[in-house]
Amino acid sequence: MKEQFVAKRIVNIGLIFLVAIGVSVIAGMMGRMYLDQLLGMGALTVLFMVLFAFLLIYERKRKKISNNRETDYGKILKGFLLSAILTVIFLFLPEFTSPVMILPILMSAVGTYELAVCSSFFFCTVLEMAKGCQSYEILCCTMLLLSGFMIAHMLEDTRNKMWCLILIFAVAVLIPVLFSYFFYQEPHYDILGKAAIGAAVTDLAAAFVYPFLTKQKEAEIDNFLTDITEEDYGLLRELKKFSRQEYRHALRVSGIAEKCAYIVGADAAVCKAAGLYYRIGILDGDSMVENGVARAQNHCFPEKVTEILSEYYGIEKMPSTIESAIVQIVDGMIKKLEALEKTSKIAGGWNKEMVIYQTLNEFSAQGLYDQSGLSMNMFLKIREYLVKEEALRL
């Protein structure tokens, strides 16, 4: 599919930029920086945001963000904002006591490890610049971040959870204590207590916040599929306003495609959503395929749904998945029956059965499903179900 700029993504990248600028300004003011220093930090922030934006785009195209090329960066924005808030809180903490390990753990939960590395080092850079760039504290911060990245990898396996929590607590206490000793050349027991509190907070984030955010990221596509099939979804309301007939057609295709998917073990949620929007390009007139794909991309539909819309009746490319074949079969079948109902007013189940058999056999003979993975057994199951499906009886 052709890549295009999408408003939701541009807005979210812009908001991430504003958050980064906000953190830099707050840090600079709290660090009592001079105007030229503030401008320098602003330039550093702009440079970071350019790199971060390119990394976001690159990771999305690699399907590393929620395994979906059409993501809108919404989860990344929330994680970035949470990290920014924590960074501002860290500005008020004494030296060597900021639990910065929490930053890579949280960002890796909502995005990728590359994004976590980039954002965490940016926030720590701003933090240390505001605090005066003491060498030992910078080293302490760096060691904590590196430890956070490594432990975040291990947190993916829930079997390691207890060991990870123990390791987090030990590292988050020992590293600040050691570097404070290197700096002061004497032990500071108050730092030990404050570091222990920070370690406990990091443990709580790893134990509860990290799995929650990870589940949210993994469920992003499923949640979005549910959202776009709700009756009050904006694009669906627009279709209903455009044509009641098209809206009813979409509902029928969606419901029957979902049932067919269950019968053959395909992704029913994808078929339900794709069935609703299979003909959405009609809202913009000619070039239904191109218009439909553009609509889906502008709303950041999951890639599987957008792909099905791009394979509309094999006009530009043949159906490449079982779900795409199912939606085309059901839409074609219903469209044929609706046309016959208007012209010939056929009555009697046997006539409709004959039309169904004949139409589906024609689709199959055209080779529409050769690249979809739809087996003959699946095709026959779908055909038999459509013959019996009451919703096809107009």
Description:
The chain is built from 17 helices and no strands. The radius of gyration is 28 Å and the shape is elongated. About 1% of the residues have low confidence. α4 packs parallel to α6. 42% of the residues are buried. It has 394 residues and is an all-alpha fold. It folds into 2 domains: 212 residues, no CATH class; 172 residues, Hypothetical protein af1432 (Orthogonal Bundle).
Give me a quick take on this structure:
This protein is mostly helical.
Compile the SSE list and pairings.
Elements: H1 7-30, H2 35-61, H3 74-90, H4 102-110, H5 113-131, H6 135-155, H7 161-184, H8 189-218, H9 220-228, H10 234-242, H11 244-264, H12 268-277, H13 288-298, H14 303-310, H15 322-343, H16 349-365, H17 376-388
Helix pairs in contact: 1-2, 1-3, 1-5, 2-5, 3-4, 3-5, 4-5, 4-6, 4-8, 5-6, 6-7, 7-8, 10-11, 11-12, 11-15, 11-17, 12-14, 12-15, 13-14, 15-16, 16-17
Question: Keyphrases for this structure?
Answer:
394 residues, Hypothetical protein af1432, elongated, 2 domains, mainly alpha
Number of domains: 2
Question: Residue ranges: pLDDT <50 for 5 or more in a row?
Answer: 346-350
The level of helicity is over 70%
Mean pLDDT: 90
- What structural category arises from helix and sheet content? mainly alpha
Order of helix and strand elements from N to C terminus: HHHHHHHHHHHHHHHHH
**Number of DSSP strands?**
0
Question: Per DSSP, what share of the residues sits in E-state strands of 2 or more residues?
Answer: under 5%
Q: What separation lies between the terminal Cα atoms?
A: 36 Å
Q: Give the overall shape, derived from the CA principal axes.
A: elongated
Helices, by number, come to 17
Nearest-angstrom radius of gyration? 28 Å
Describe the biggest sheet? none
